[in-house]
Design brief:
The protein is an alpha+beta fold. Helices cover about 25% and strands about 30% of the residues. Residues about 1-25 and about 410-420 have low confidence and may be disordered.
Length: about 525
């Protein structure tokens, strides 16, 4: 190949390729515009690729959603409401505590049993029986900077040791200042000062539909200070058979096991209720929770701290809610609400004032009386020794009796009610045999008490007691109303089994129930 001669290899050029592609030479002007077009196309392609790549960047800031003015106003209202809940939560959480309890359970086998003999158990290589520890969980509300705490009685009842866990993680031993099983309230004290106390609200002002928040430790100590929100679903709820004195606030704010004793607060961050129980078919949250009104809790707490017990008014009558059938049978006309006096205690406050059986109480201290649960609450909140006006219907005429209430002693009931009586250690509930119940049982001449409820797993269920059984006697003492039933149980003590004489259909039989200690 000549060193200085022409290179025989064809040279690459855009011009030559275009000429070949287009089948000839391209004028200069056309080549210029083709170049511009190609350049623009390349630039647009590069920009598109860059934009596409940027669109898939997860870290790239997205443009704000374009709300209409009306939508933006609605969202701002929700944001304001959310900020309100956040503010209430921040204010109340330091005042709600977790309560853990520990109870030592002793072996239940009888000492004379050979299976309880240490030599027997060692010979057969059986593990030695010893005490077991039962742990419980609940919540409480700090109501005093000095460490005073409100909670439920069932949270602390029977506990050998109580520990309060504050919101900052401190664990403090607690002692019980006082407890009241009838209202299911208890007051605790921890050795601490300058705690965040929650102010009381006026629970009488709580309205149905009002927003409330529940605070507590559901299920586990690890879930302490759990906040749930809802509305007040109802007020003045009674007849739940959860405690003896019931005036519950009902809410759909989620309350679960472990929330008992926690706070129900309003949007001012005030305590309006002590979360107490749930109504559930599954054992968890079903949208129906109950809280003890703060006003009742304050009254009970004040009595427990001052007197070590709760002082309640005592009327000394047996009572029964007025039903439509009773009203018609007693020729009461349009009267459909009230309480029928079924018995009057000799020498009791109502008896001294002239009350008689079959009187219908329609008002007490100027307040209309709807049913026996309400009357019990009204009487209980009146201080002993105070004279109260009780309006009764007798033979179709209204009369006003001036009753000087007595003090409710431990061995008596503030209102010796013929309404259902709960004996939790036996696991059964009894009530009077009304005409309706007698018809349902097909017992025309039935009288006395009927078993209205038997708790699952209770000693009553284990002994074969059934709903609808008639209670004829307790420990061979005839009982005709719930006052007799309670009195017989208290006299029997807990050392021996309780002997019940029951009637089921045409059969009469006895069962022996050993009460839990």
């Amino acid at each position: 190949m000549p060193v200085n001669g022409p290179d025989p290899r064809p040279r690459f050029s855009v011009k030559s390729k275009l000429n070949k592609y287009l089948g000839g030479k391209i004028p200069m002007r056309r080549r210029f515009w083709l170049g511009v077009t190609a350049g623009l196309s390349a630039a647009l392609l590069i920009c598109g690729l860059l934009v596409l790549g940027h669109g898939h960047d997860a870290t790239a800031k997205q443009p704000a959603r374009d709300f209409t003015p009306a939508q933006k106003e609605a969202v701002d209202q929700l944001r304001t409401m959310s900020a309100g809940f956040e503010a209430v939560a921040e204010a109340v959480v330091p005042s709600v505590v977790t309560i853990t309890s520990e109870r030592v359970i002793q072996p239940t086998q009888a000492p004379q049993s050979p299976f309880n003999d240490p030599l027997f158990r060692r010979f057969f290589d059986m593990p030695q029986q010893g005490p077991t520890r039962q742990h419980g969980l609940g919540s409480g509300v700090i109501v005093g900077e000095d460490g005073t705490i409100l909670t439920n009685n069932h949270v602390v009842n029977g506990a050998d040791e109580l520990t309060v866990v504050l919101s900052d993680g401190r664990r403090l031993k607690a002692k019980v200042l006082g407890a009241d099983a009838r209202s299911d309230l208890a007051v605790l004290k921890v050795d601490a000062n300058h705690l965040e106390a929650m102010p009381f609200g006026n629970s009488d002002d709580v309205k149905i539909g009002e927003w409330v928040m529940a605070v507590g430790s559901p299920f586990s100590e690890n879930l302490k200070a759990t906040i749930t929100a809802g509305i007040v679903s109802g007020t003045g709820r009674t007849g739940m058979h959860l405690s003896e004195y019931e005036d519950f606030i009902q809410t759909d704010a989620a309350i679960n096991p472990g929330n008992s004793g926690g706070a129900l607060v309003n949007l001012d961050g005030e305590l309006v209720g002590i979360n107490s129980a749930i109504a559930s078919r599954a054992g968890g949250y079903d949208g129906i929770g109950f809280a003890i009104p703060a006003n009742m809790a304050m009254d009970v707490m004040t009595d427990l701290i001052k007197h070590g017990k709760v002082t309640r008014g005592y009327l000394g009558v047996g009572i029964q809610s007025l039903s439509q059938d009773l009203a018609e049978a007693m020729n009461l006309g349009d009267v459909r609400e009230g309480v029928v006096i079924t018995s009057v205690q000799d020498g009791g406050p109502a008896g001294k004032a002239g009350a008689k059986a079959q009187d219908v109480i329609v008002a007490f201290n100027g307040q209309p009386v709807k049913d026996s649960d309400q009357l019990r609450l009204i009487v209980a909140r009146v201080n002993p020794g105070v004279t109260s006006d009780m309006v009764v219907l007798r033979d179709g005429r209204r009369q006003t009796l001036h009753v000087k209430l007595g003090e409710y002693p431990d061995e008596k009931e503030p209102v010796a009610s013929n309404e259902p009586s709960d004996s939790q250690d036996l696991g059964l509930q009894v009530g009077p045999v009304t005409p309706d119940i007698a018809r349902q049982l097909d017992m025309k001449n039935a009288s006395g008490l009927v078993v209205m409820q038997v708790d699952p797993g209770s000693v009553a269920e284990d002994a074969g007691v059934q709903e609808g059984d008639l209670v004829k006697s307790v420990n061979q003492v005839k009982v005709s109303d719930t006052s007799d039933f309670r009195s017989a149980l208290k006299k029997s003590g807990k050392e021996k089994p309780v002997l019940l004489q029951l009637q089921r259909g045409d059969n009469t039989f006895f069962v022996a129930l050993r009460r839990d200690k």
